[in-house]
Task: structure prediction
Amino acid sequence: MSKIQLTLFNIDIVEYLISYFKSNIAAYKLNELTNALCADIPSINDTHPLAMEYGNLLSAGENNYTSLLPAIGIEFISDSPSALNTLGRGYEVIEIDQAFHDAISSVDVKNRIRDGYIASDAALTELQDAIDDADPEKIYATSIRDINTVTVNISIWSNNVKVTRTMMYVVKSLLQRARLDLSSKGIKNMRINTTGSLYNYDFSETLFGVEYSLTDMTQSIVNIEIDTALSTIKNVEEVTKTGIPANKTYAGVTGVGVGQ
Result:
């Protein structure tokens, strides 16, 4: 008897925003807008710009240090159960077949987290074996759906207050456009909060920052447990004692990568 654990969610919001910014920010021509003080595509990473600046300072030494700024950092801060969970946690028996397996395995393992799949190649091999052994070629699993509220911070830092302010407007514009696309991917309710007039004096010059806090974003997270010894709906219902009928339309995972 073997159990396979899979987790499906909408997307990795940080990786999505980094990719979105890198693909779209050049159109704003930051090099021209800042009088060549910022590249059209500045440094955009999943680390706070000042943390990167400290690391560069420590590794380079006093005589070789060169600023990495202007830069944008996009960081995951926290998640917590959404108020929507007070309506009841979603729990059901779902049907797993070849299409379910193929939807996940078609994504390279290094990109699965980005695309909302926590699934190793080893787990997918076990799942394929279980599907092949089933008659007909489908097995059943229990799924638990939660809705979490996610917070992400975006930090903009440079050594020129006008450059930081220009980048602030560009990033705000990108976020407003990205919000529509995120909504289509199941990320709802993004609230954009801005904190400006931030300063840092730990380097050889004054640095100027603006921070965006993206709050109230809701995301579905579905935890799936597949017991390969349970090959029929009756098997699963007897073990879970729920009496919940199998959902043959993948509603248990709709909106998180499978069945979209």
